[in-house]
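Reopening this one. Same input as before:
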Amino acid sequence: MRSARADSSVKILGMIGGTGPESTVEYYRRLISTYHARVSESGAPPIIINSVDNKNLVKWFTAGDLPSVIDFLAAEIERLARAGADFALIAAVTPHLGFDKLQQRASIPLLSIVEATADAATKAGVRRLALFGTRFTMHAALFPEAFARRGLTIVVPNEKEQEFIHGKYMGELFVGAILDETRAGLVDIVETMKQRDNVDGLILGGTELSLILREPTAAGLPVLDTTQIHVETALEWMLRE
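Same output, byte for byte:
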């Protein structure tokens, strides 16, 4: 573990939270526990959280109004920069649809959950992955393009399966409802895609999914938990010399 003296040089993380609140709480818990495991058994890493109101974000995504999403988040990221954050992350996947434009406008570096997950998939040796998330994420080129650059393939569920996943995501997980029957339904889709689409892994392409699919495997396939991957990569950035 690092010394207490070294801890004082840890970079300050800025986090856009509230997108939704349940996963923001999970991010904070995991950042603390990962810090304790890697750095110090006590204390906490320096984090500035900007918890934003997600209602307009949901409305804009539903309407396909990505420019409004980008304008809003760019301003909120600058709040973090002014507060002293050295770099920032967005504790949600769907807002990464505007990640490149946000990075262009941000005065501090942004940590992409998509790129971090693609790197983790490469290290894990998986090649063909199922992607679960909101409808916005599953329909986007965000994950397919990032993974294709590494020679990996993304497979999305069919329309009926996407309807189930998106409905449960927004109607239950987004507001903190964790139901056993929903978990079973998600695992059934993984099993179906394993047989039908020959996938060899599952990406939890929505941070609330890590609240319901907590095991390292689903239907016998390795699960790439984007929340945990993002947290671990954030801590690596915080500890960079």
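So the earlier flakiness isn't reproducible anymore. For the record, The chain has a mean pLDDT of 94.
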